[in-house]
Amino acid sequence: MTDIILITGGTGFAGSHLVEALLAKNQAPETIHVTSFSNKPGFVGQLLPATNIHQLDLTQTEAVIKVFTKLQPTQIFHLASFSSPSLSLENTAKAIETNVEIQMNVLEAMRVHTPQARLLSIGSASEYASSPEPLSETSILGPHDPYGVSKVAQDMLAYSYAVRFELDIVRVRPFNHIGERQEKGFVVSDFAHQIIQIERKLQQEIQVGNLQVTRDFSDVKDIVQAYLLLMAEGKSGEVYNVGSSKDVTIQELLARMKALSTVDFAIKVVEQKQRPGDIPRSVAEISKISKLGWQPTIPLEKTLERILNWWRQQ
């Protein structure tokens, strides 16, 4: 039987790379369906038939039910969410309400209309409490921003549905992932955009926030390979970290990007870019998914180089 794949939020950053990865594995384009909040499918519009791109608001229950009943997906990659930690600080209620409503609608549609499907629920490293040590799947949860709170809610709802209704649900907590097509509002894409503005003489200095925190960065292309592996081999009901297992300071990250720029530039720390309650360190412990055979493969420098080249083409 041919799998019918549904990717919620499939026209977004990670979703577009997941579609590319599926096509590279010879998944037939007509069997891949994506949802999009926007009526502009972007890059994915070049990859899939227009009939496979479904514009809808996943907070609308009837619209979600309609898609599930029509498509009858056998594999669901549930990526869609309000995804910006920084914007969640300005829109706390919206971030939490949106992500809980999306999760409830998707899980209920699966339970009622496609109970034999398999679903990968995408959480976040933002769910974890601050720790000086690498974070494992059993580390304490303690989100520091509304986005993280909403991802804990999504994660626990997925677990609850897996246990209560015996649904085939695997959960994943990805750490920071970066690559081309990531919108502004995230540290690497913000840096890249500003660097290219400086190269074009449209900006004189790069404005930054806290450079002393450390984060675990992976290439989005590695991350979506982990998603494919977990869909195929992840244990139902379990949760898996996905990350590089290495952290770098934001200062070091910026230095690496500066070395890849065609011009020198000044760096200015500005108050507006500071994030209240920013945790000092976040790095993944990935032994659990490593036992399934996954490891990150793309060096950080290669990823940063590709990102800068993409922004130069915009």
What does this structure look like?
The protein has 314 residues and is of the alpha/beta class. The protein contains ten helices and 13 strands. Strands 3-2-1-4-5-6-11 form a seven-stranded parallel sheet, sandwiched between helices. Helix 5 links the parallel strand 5 (118-122) and strand 6 (168-174). Helix 1 (13-24) crosses helix 7. The protein starts with a strand and ends with a helix.
- The CATH topology of the largest domain is Rossmann fold
State the separation between the terminal residues, measured CA to CA. Answer: 41 Å
Tally of DSSP helical segments: 10
Instruction: Kindly state the percentage of residues in helix.
Output: 25-40%
Largest sheet: 7 strands, parallel
Across the major sheet, the strand order is 3-2-1-4-5-6-11
H and E string: EHEEHEHHEHEEHEEEHEEHEHH
What would the average pLDDT be, to the nearest integer?
A: 95
Q: What would you say the CATH architecture of the largest domain is?
A: 3-Layer(aba) Sandwich
- What fraction of the residues are assigned to beta strands by DSSP? 15-25%
Regions with little confidence, pLDDT below 50 for 5+ residues: none
Supply the number of structural domains.
2
Instruction: Report the structural category.
Output: alpha/beta
Summary keywords:
314 residues; alpha/beta; Rossmann fold; UDP-galactose 4-epimerase, domain 1; seven-stranded parallel sheet; two-stranded parallel sheet; 10 helices; 13 strands; 39% helix; globular
